Amino acid sequence: MPIRCTATQAFDAFVQPDRITSFWLKSASAPLGPGAQVAWQFMVAGASECVNVTAFERPRHIAFTWTGSGLFVDISLAEQGGMTVVGVEVRGFGGDDAMDQIVNATEGFSIVLCDLKVFLESGRPANLVRDKAALIERARDA
Q1: Which residues partner with 85 through β-bridges?
Q2: CB 118, CB 131: distance < 8 Å
Q3: 14 in Cβ contact with 20 (< 8 Å)
Q4: Using an 8 Å Cβ cutoff, are 90 and 105 in contact?
Q5: What is the pLDDT of residue 140?
Q6: How many helices (H) and strands (E) does the chain have?
Q7: HEC letters along 80-100
Q8: Cα 55 from Cα 107, distance rounded (Å)
Q9: Residues 47, 41: contact at Cβ < 8 Å?
Q10: pLDDT in tens, 100-137
């Protein structure tokens, strides 16, 4: 996702609790950092993960595992032509529903990156993650 900001601004949006809760999470117990273990609450009620940071190279690279799912998330940031290109790779899918997991992760991170772009370029989130969380909760209640 190309975003009109510096790599440091995009990196800090993922690392700092006051930034990441503006577009993606409901809460984060601490900032991400080298070797950190951080509890994340997502906007979907009851959805949470413990994040174990495995790589932290400011402002170019963050990687972590989600202990609940065992998935490995790798976020790369590269400045190109006055923008920062943010890439996300998720690995570790398995089981009979691996394809569903891949589709859900792709959809989820696409929404997160779109919301991040709007947030960093305008100063306000588009609430795409929040709206998707509301749809998920309504589907659960139906």
Answers
A1: 2, 78
A2: no
A3: yes
A4: yes
A5: 87
A6: 4, 7
A7: ECCEEEEEEEEECCCCCCHHH
A8: 24
A9: yes
A10: 999 999 999 999 999 999 999 999 999 999 999 999 99
